[in-house]
Each structure stands twice: as C-alpha cells, then as structure tokens.
Design a protein that fits this description.
Order of helices and strands: HHHHHHHHH
Shape: globular
Distance between the termini: 35 Å
Helix content: over 70%
Largest sheet: none
Number of domains: 1
Number of strands: 0
Length: 246
C-alpha cells in the first residue's frame, strides 16, 4: 500500500484524469503572476542607474534561463525513472519536456543577445556561460532528434534518456561558469545565500515572473504530456470512450 501512489503516478489514465482538474487552476495562477510581474517589471520598476531601461530584459531572460536549467533536470529524472522502473508515463514526460526546454533555452539565448548588444557592444561572445547554454540547447534538440531516429519507440526512449542523463553534467557547469572562468556574463543577481545584488524594487517583480514561469512550465508540461498520452494510448478503451464522448 505504501508504494501505491508511486504506481499511480505511472498510470497514463490516472495522470490524465487528475491533471484535468489541476490545469485550469495552474493556468489561471500562472497567467495572473505573469501579468502582474510583467506590468510591474516592465512599466513600474525603476530605471537602472548604469544600464537604463535595457536591464528590463531580465524579466524575460532570467525566468527563461531558470526554467531551461530546472526543466533539464525534470527531463533527465523522468528518463531515469523510465529506465529504472520501465514506466511509460515517465518517458512521455521526458518527450514532452524536451521541446519546452529547448524553447526556453532559445528564449534565454535570444534575450541574452538583445541585452548584450547595448551592454557589451556585441550580440554574441563565446564566453563560458553563453557557450554552455548553447550546449544545453543542443542537448535538448538531441533528445528530440533521438525520438525520431529509431522505429522502435522503446529504443528511442532509452536513447533519449541516456543522452539526457549524460547531459546533466552541463547544468552545474552553467551555474558555476561565471565563478570558474573569466566571463563577460554578470554573476547571479538573485542569491539564496548571501546578499543579492539587485534592489528589492527590481527584485520583487522578477521573483513574481520566475514564479509565473514555473506555473507556465507546469501547465505546458501537463498539456503536452496529455496530448502525447492521447496519441500513444489511442487504442485503449478509456481513450476511445473519452474521444467518443466529446
């Protein structure tokens, strides 16, 4: 009985039915947080003394970068669960997390370039942080590509999971790149330990945006996982009954 909840998590039908109730609430909360954070940060936060208004790109760049990294761990953990316990749902989560993570990484790279042009005078530099983020983008694309590289879905899932797990070594490199090597990229502005280098009037809307991005990520992950479930389970009785009832 103690492990019943764990096996329920591996049930596509259980996941689909439960998330039907969660998604409207998560979506509404995420939308409210994103609207409040964006309006506060982009319109009402004070102008930075050195960077002027160009710093406001952090309200998109920082949350996207946060979720790109956190999302990779989610993808890798889902792949590991699939390999160890042979749960179909975990592979479904892994497949769904890959395009979302790739999109967030791309947004982080583009917004970083937009911020870098007025700050550094160039769109791109091959420093440690930016290069390791580019590698992260390619890792996401690699997991996606492996899904179409094999005719056997189980083989594709295992190959993607192995690449995802190997790629986790890149995440701490991204986190610590500004400390380990000389880099133009500025150190972290928000710190869990120690004093943050950002004024509270700018930090509060940033924290709200980060929370909103986490909510958006959760909603998107559930949405794409549900779509994948309907496709992969289309021959089961419960999916046929669900489709016929609509």
């Amino acid at each position: 009985m103690g492990w019943q909840w764990f096996h329920q998590l591996g049930s596509p039908r259980w996941f689909y039915e439960k998330t039907s109730r969660w998604m409207p609430w998560i979506g509404a909360i995420a939308l409210i947080l994103l609207v409040v954070g964006a309006v506060w940060g982009l319109a009402y936060a004070p102008v930075d003394a050195k960077q002027g208004n160009s710093y406001r790109i952090i309200y998109i760049h920082v949350p996207a970068a946060f979720l790109a990294l956190a999302g990779y761990y989610i993808m890798a953990i889902a792949g590991a669960v699939g390999i160890i316990w042979q749960m179909k749902l975990s592979y479904t989560v892994m497949r769904s997390a890959a395009p979302i993570g790739a999109t967030l990484t791309f947004i982080a790279l583009v917004t970083g370039a937009v911020w870098g042009k007025p700050t550094w005078g160039t769109w791109w530099v091959w420093d440690a942080r930016i290069t390791s983020m580019l590698i992260l983008f390619f890792l996401y694309l690699g997991v996606m590509a492996l899904q179409g590289a094999y005719q056997n879905q189980n083989t594709a899932n295992k190959a993607g999971a192995i690449l995802a797990l190997v790629g986790t070594i890149n995440i701490p490199i991204i986190y610590k790149s500004v400390d380990w090597w000389f880099t133009l990229h500025q150190p972290a502005t928000l710190k869990l330990t120690g004093e943050s280098s950002i004024d509270p009037s700018m930090a509060y809307p940033l924290l709200i945006m980060i929370a909103g991005f986490y909510g958006l990520y959760a909603w998107l992950l559930m949405h794409w996982t549900r779509m994948d479930i309907l496709h992969s389970e289309q021959k089961t009785a419960w999916v046929k009954a669900l489709v016929s009832s609509k």
